[in-house]
Amino acid sequence: MTGTDPYVPDHGDASYDVLHYDLALRYRPDSNRLDGDAHLLCRAIQPVTAIAIDLHQLQVAKVSGSPAAVTRWVQRGSKVHVTLKSPARAGAEFTLRIRYSGHPGTVASATLGDAGWEELADGAIVAAQPHGAPAWFPCNDRPDNKATYSFEIAVPPGYHVAASGDLESSVRRGSAVTWRYEQRAAMACYLAAVQIGRYTVRELGGDVPIHVVAPGDVGGAGFDGSFGRQPEMMEFFAGRFGPYPFEGYTSVITDDALEIPLESQSLSTFGRNFATGDWHSVRLVAHELAHQWFGNAVTLTHWRDIWLHEGFACYAEWLWSEECGVQTAKGWAEHYHQRLRELPQDLLLADPTPELMFDDRVYKRGALTLHALRRHVGEECFFDILTSWVAENSGGSVTTAQFVEHCSTRSGKDLSSLFTAWLQKLPLPALPR
Ligand SMILES: [Zn+2]
Question: Domain boundary at 171, 189, 207, which?
């Protein structure tokens, strides 16, 4: 295998980190044409002269470097191989500039499905988890390489651009409007996103600025039921998980129906089919918001640890359900424990395989693991574990082993048999009373 993670083979280069991405993009929705000018501030992890950058389907016009000049670059498959004139020693910083263009699409994978840039009827979205970031910008596609980002996206007038960061300005110059966003918190590249459409913006009240970016005709009771309670949800989750980790939060609702919503950092994307107000939509609004703590602020190091994202976001749905009187977390735990008992027990939660990474059993057994932990350590200790986990690891990358150790430290209990049974064995353990 090349690359750094067997779940997403051939992606990423472990010899360097990108510290900051400065992406200047120009996009034409009518022709799905993207022109990019990317500056990557990099730091060598080991002495390097040759590095690989992930970029899919788009054509590179030029690569240049500073302080070391680029002597050679070649684009082969979904990689740009760059050779520096002089070696960068371990710890040294260098900048690469990559100019590129083309018609972006998705990165296809037989095991992981398609992810990346998707054209809508009138606009585009990025849905990059887990392997789609190279579909729209040159990157070091490792989930544990977090960086800050500057986005500058020029689109024709009439379109709104939302991005996974804070809006700095939107300025019309000639025949285009340039939208500038900054992501100041470290972000894995699969969590970077831009969403482009004919949207209007609504601001919802609350301590954390929450915006909804949606077509003008999306509203009414269904919208209020699904998205209108996000300020309450935000306050509730902050009480359970600790302060919201970013400056603001945006929900984008596309005019097109989308099969599933998706989180990116400080921004989640839903189809208009989720503005219904029923529990299935509400739980997903809660789920994507909870990912801001679990997945986005605190991010897995290896994709095999996906339960650290999905199990936690699923459990957050149950907590919100309990809070708003739909059903208790205990009730959901019993319901899904019974359901899982009837399904094949051939999925190892701590290493589910790439094919089953997003299998619903990862979500539900992950949430059940947290419920079992809650029963075992008690209410106060359980939420102390969650808030301290986020506080200690926000902006960083984590593993399952670190979480297990964290739980033992905070609880003062030996939890190895509990976690071994839920994470490292196939049979479904009994649910603690
Ligand atoms: Zn999720």
Answer: 189
At 1-41, the pLDDT tens digits run: 467 899 999 999 999 999 999 999 999 999 999 999 999 99
Ligand 1 centroid vs 418 CA: distance in angstroms? 24
Distance between Cα 142 and ligand 1 center (Å): 19
CA dihedral of residues 253, 258, 261, 262 (deg, nearest 10): -90
For residue 43, the model assigns a pLDDT of 98
Report d(CA 432, CA 81) in Å as an integer: 52
Mapped onto helix, strand or coil, the DSSP state of residue 4 is coil
How do residues 300-311 score in pLDDT, each as one tens digit?
999 999 999 999
State how far the Cα of 25 lies from the Cα of 261, in Å rounded to an integer.
25
pTM: 0.97
Q: Please give the tally of structural domains in the chain.
A: 3
Same structural domain for residues 273 and 166?
no
What's the alpha-carbon Rg for the chain, to the nearest Å? Answer: 22
The pLDDT of residue 59 is 98
The CA 164 to ligand 1 mean position distance, Å, reads 17
Query: Which domain does 373 fall in, by range?
Result: 298-424
pLDDT at 68: 87
**Do 159 and 91 belong to one domain?**
yes
Asked whether residue 226 falls in the same domain as residue 278, the answer is yes
Find the 268 Cα to ligand 1 centroid distance in Å: 11
